[in-house]
Design goal:
mainly alpha; 49% helix; 5 helices; globular; 93 residues
Length: 93
């Protein structure tokens, strides 16, 4: 589960690699984790130092520690095989 990119980290992919892994997964949630996992099968990620701006809405509404705990619980569930649809329901309840 470690070293997987998430959407708020901005994932950039070369087109040939993107096509090689079958494109973007069609699922309700955890698509960023899934694409990162697939990409790791064909190469190592490069971590850039550039910054991106993403929404802090969830972090502000629910607090840092609560949000971190929820994200790790959801990732663990996905790793265990819980469906993305089920995880989506927990995330958006």
């Amino acid at each position: 589960m470690s070293k997987l990119g998430a959407g708020d980290q901005a994932i950039f992919v070369k087109r040939d690699w993107f096509e090689q892994i079958g494109g973007y997964p069609n699922q309700a949630l955890m698509e960023d984790v899934e694409i990162s996992k697939r990409l790791k099968t064909i190469g190592k990620p490069a971590c850039l130092t550039s910054q991106v701006i993403t929404s802090a809405r969830r972090w502000q509404q629910h607090g840092t520690w609560r949000t971190i705990l929820l994200m790790w619980q959801l990732r663990f569930d996905y790793w265990r095989g819980v469906s993305a649809d089920n995880i989506w329901q927990r995330y958006y309840r």
